[in-house]
Amino acid sequence: MSVATFAAALDLAAPLLAGVLGVAGAGKLFGRGMARLAHRTALARLLRGGGRAARALRTLGALELLLCAALSALPPSVATGGAAAVLGAGFLGYLGYARAAAPGASCGCTARDDGPPGARAFARAAVVAAGGVAVALARHPWWVTALRHPAATGCCALVAVAGLVALGADRRWRMPWRRLRLRLTGHPLAGTPAGVPVAATVELLEHSLAWQSTSPLVRSALLDHWDEGGWRILQYAGVHARGGAARPVVVLFALDAQASRDAVREPAVRVSVLDADTGEPLRS
Questions:
Q1: N or C: which end of the chain has fewer CB within 10 A?
Q2: Which long-range contacts (CB under 8 A, 24 or more apart) does 198-203 make?
Q3: Is 93 helix (H, G, I), strand (E, B) or coil?
Q4: In a 10 Å sphere around its CB, with 0-12 CB exposed, 13-18 middle and 19+ buried, how is residue 230 labelled?
C-alpha cells in the first residue's frame, strides 16, 4: 500500500466509523426491544437494575448518534477521533467485564445482540477504537478525499461494507450461506433427537400448578424465550398489585428444556417476578 493510499484510507475512516456508530446508536435509542433486552445484559448487573441499564443504553445510543453526526459533517480532528477511540476502548473494557462477571448475559451492544458477547462483539469494539485513531490521524475531510480519489474511495467502501456485514449482529444475511454449507456438508445434528418445540414447553407450563398460582399476574402472551443451562426460560409481562398500588413486572418461568407433556405430567417450574423498571426480584 502506497503512502497516498494509506493517507486516503485514514481520511475515509470518518464516514465508515459514522456508519458503525449510527447503526448501533439508532438501535439503542429507538429499538423497540431495548427495554426488554436491558434486563438480560451484564449492564443490568453492573448498575443493579434493568431500568437503569435501559436508560444508560438509551443515553449511550444518543451519544453514538451525536458522534456519528460529528464524524459525518465535520472535518477530522483529534477531538472527534479521540472520543471515538475512548468509546471503543470503553466498549472493550465493558465486554471484558461482561465475559468475566456475567458470562451468560447479553452485552446490549446493539438492538439485535441477545446472546453473550463473542468474538464479533470484541471485533466491533476494536474497529471503533481503531477507527477513532484513524480519524485523529486524518489530514483532510472525507468528502475532499472522495472527490480526489474516487477509485480508492470505492475500494475502501466495499471492504468496509463487507467487514461490517461480517461483524454485524444481524444474522439474516448469513442464512443463504448456511443453507449452502448444509447442502454440501450435511446437517451437524443429523441422526440426533430433535429438541422440544417452544410451543410444547408453553403447553406444559400452562397445565402446571406453578402457572395456575402465578397466572393472575400475567398480562401478555409469551414475549421471549431462551435456553440456558438445561433450562428453558419463558418471559411474560405482568402487573403486580400490593397495598392498592400496581407496578409492571417481568414474569419468568424456567422449565426443563427437554420436558414435554408426553414425558412429564407435573414439571418442576421455577418462577421469578422482577420489577420491570428496576429488575429487582419481587418474589421467586
A1: N
A2: 198/222, 198/225, 198/232, 198/234, 200/260, 200/261, 201/225, 201/232, 201/234, 201/255, 201/257, 201/259, 201/260, 202/234, 203/260, 203/261
A3: helix
A4: exposed
Please give the Cα distance from 96 to 77 (Å, whole number).
Answer: 29
**What pLDDT digit, counting tens, does each position of 35-57 carry?**
677 777 777 777 877 788 888 88
Query: For 138-263, where are the alpha helices, taking DSSP H only?
Result: 142-148, 150-167, 175-185, 198-206, 209-214
- Residue 118 C-alpha from the chain's centroid: 11
State residue 23 phi and psi, 5-degree precision.
-65, -45
**What single DSSP character describes residue 193?**
P
pLDDT digits (tens, 9 = 90+) for 167-204: 655 545 555 555 555 566 654 444 434 578 888 899 88
DSSP secondary structure of 197-225:
PHHHHHHHHHTSHHHHHHGGGB-SS--EE
